[in-house]
Amino acid sequence: MKYAIGVDIGGTKVAIAIVDETGKIKMHSVISTDITISAIKMVHKINREIERVLKESGISMNQLIGIGVGAPGPLDSKKGVVTSPPNLKGWIDVPVSRLVEQHFSMPVLLENDANAAALAEKLTGAAQENDDFVYITVSTGIGAGIVTEGKLLRGLKGNAGDIGHTVVDPSFGRCTCGQYGCLEWIASGTAIARQGSVIMDKDITSKDVFNLYLSGNVEIVHLIERVFRVLGVACVSVINTFDTEKIVIGGGVSKVGAPLFQSIQTYVNNFALNETGRKTEIVPAKLEQKSGVIGAAALCFNR
Ligand code: ADP
Ligand code: ZN
Question: What is the CATH T-level fold of the domain 3-118+290-301, as seen in this structure?
Answer without folding.
Answer: Nucleotidyltransferase; domain 5 (3.30.420)
